[in-house]
Amino acid sequence: MNGCRGRLRAVVLVAAILALLFVGGCGFKDKPVPPQHVVPQPVLDLQVELDEKGATLTWTYPKKTVTGGDIEEIDEFKLYRAEVPAGSFCPTCPIPYDAPIAVPGGLLPPGAGRTATYEVRGLRPDNFYFFKVRSKTGWWTESQDSNQVSFFWQTPPATPEGVSATGGDGKNVVQWQPVDRRSDATPAAGTVRYQVYRGVDGGAVAKIGEPVVAATYTDTTVENGRVYAYRVQAVSTYAQGTVRSDLSETVEARPVDRTGPPVPGRVEGLRTEVGVKIFWDHVAAEDLAGYRVYRRTGGESKPTLVGDVNLPHNMFVDAKAPGVPLFYSVSGIDTRSPANESARSTEIRVDN
User: Fold this and answer.
1) What sign does the dihedral 279-280-282-288 (CA atoms) show?
2) Which fold has domain 35-153?
3) Which residue from 196, 257, 250 is spatially nearest to 222, judged by alpha carbons?
4) What is the C-alpha separation between 316 and 348, in angstroms, rounded?
5) Angle at 272 between CA 268 and CA 275, to 5 degrees
6) Would you tell me which CATH number, out of the four given (2.40.50.140, 3.30.360.10, 3.20.20.70, 2.60.40.10), belongs to the domain 164-253?
7) pLDDT per residue as tens digits for the range 99-146
8) Residue 12: which pLDDT band, with cuts at 50, 70 and 90?
9) pLDDT, tens only, 226-238
10) What is the band of 17 on the pLDDT scale with cuts at 50, 70, 90?
11) Which of 24-28, 59-63, 121-125 is predicted least confidently?
12) How confident is the model at residue 63 (pLDDT cuts 50, 70, 90)?
C-alpha cells in the first residue's frame, strides 16, 4: 500500500513539473508567433562599387516581413562570398560560396530607411567574386537570398597624371599622360581607356560621356563663363570585365566667349555738308554692343578706326573726312571686355 502511494506521489510531481515547463517555464504569456510572421523579405538591391582598393557593397535594410508586417530591427546580416579563379570559372556551375560573414544589423528609424555598407578588401587578381546577403530578425528567422552581384578583379591601372584643362570658346580641352602601368608598377594589360568626370560651378563630379582611347578629351557641352572641374580615371578592359583606377587630381577650366558678332551688311555712304555719312544694316546678336567704323585713303594699305557707334544707332558721320576718295568698312563688337570684334565688312568707296 505504501508503495502505491509513493508511485502516485511521483506521478503527481512529474505532472506538476511538466505543467510548469509548458505553462510558465517557457515564458509564453500568449500564443507563440508563427515564424513566417517575422521572417524578413529578401534584400533586392544589393549593389557593388569598385575602386582602386577593392569593392564596397551596399544594400537597404528590409522594412517588411514576408507576410507584410513591419520590422523594427535586424539582428544581423549573413554575407556570402565566393572567389573563383578566372581560369576555372564555369558559367553554368553552382557558385562555391564560403561560410557566411556576420555583419551587424541594427534598428530601423521609424518612417525612414537604412542602408548597410560593407567594404571588401584583400581581393586577388585574376579572380571572379560573387556576393549575396540574407537578413535575420532572430535565431530561426532568416530571409531568402538577395540578388547576386559579381565582378572580375585585376590589379587596377595607375591613376592618370599630368592632367590639365584649357578653356576655349564654347569648349574645354582636357589632357593627361597616357597610362601604361598598373598601380603596382607592373606593365598594364588589356586595353586602357579613360573615363572623364566633370563638375560644374563647385558641384560634385560625375561621369561625362563614354571612356575614350586617346589621352585627351574635348568637352563641347559647356557654357561660356562657368567653371568646370575635371578628373580622369583609367579603365582597363579585359575579356572578363573592367577594372578602374582611382580618380586623378582635380583641374579646372572656364570657357570664354571669343566669337565676335556677325559682319554688318549693306554698308553705304555719301558726302554731305557735315561730313561723310556711313550707314548699314543692324546685325542679329544677343550680346551685340555696337559697331566700329574704319576708313582709309587710296594710298593706305590698312584702314584706321575713325569712330565707335553704340546701339541702337547704325549710322556714323565722319566730320573730319578729307576731300579725297575714301574707303569705309564697318565691324560689330559684343559686350565683353575687351570686346570681341567681327571681321570688317566689304569696303565701300565714297568719292570727293
Assistant:
1) negative
2) Immunoglobulin-like (2.60.40)
3) 257
4) 14
5) 85
6) 2.60.40.10
7) 999 999 999 988 888 999 999 999 999 999 999 999 999 888 999 999
8) very low
9) 999 999 999 998 8
10) very low
11) 24-28
12) very high
Cα-based distances in Å from 271 to 129, 276, 296, 324, 349: 87, 4, 15, 11, 11
Q: Which residue in the block uniquely carries the three cell numbers 573615363?
A: 195
**Would you call 113 exposed, middle or buried from its count of C-beta atoms within 10 A (0-12, 13-18, 19+)?**
exposed
Domain(s) of CATH 2.60.40.10: residues in the chain = 35-153, 164-253, 268-350
Residues 6+ apart with CB under 8 A from 349: 325, 326, 327
Cell of 313: 544707332
Q: What is the 3-state secondary structure (H, E, C) of the chain?
A: CHHHHHHHHHHHHHHHHHHHHHHHHCCCCCCCCCHHHCCECCCCCCEEEEECCEEEEEEECCCEECCCCECCEEEEEEEEEEEEEHHHCCCCCCCCCCCCEEEEEEECCCCCCCEEEEEECCCCCCEEEEEEEEEECCCCCECCCCCCEEEEECCCECCCCCCEEEECCCCEEEECCCCCEECCCCECCCEEEEEEEEEECCCCCEEEEEEECCCEEEECCCCCCCCEEEEEEEEEECCCCEEECCCCCCEEECCCCCCCCCCCCCCEEEEECCEEEEECCCCCCCCEEEEEEEEEECCCCCCEEEEEEECCCCEEEECCCCCCCEEEEEEEEECCCCCCECCCCCCEEECC
C-alpha cell at 91: 558559367
Which CATH number is 268-350 given? 2.60.40.10
Question: Which cell numbers hold the place of 92?
Answer: 553554368
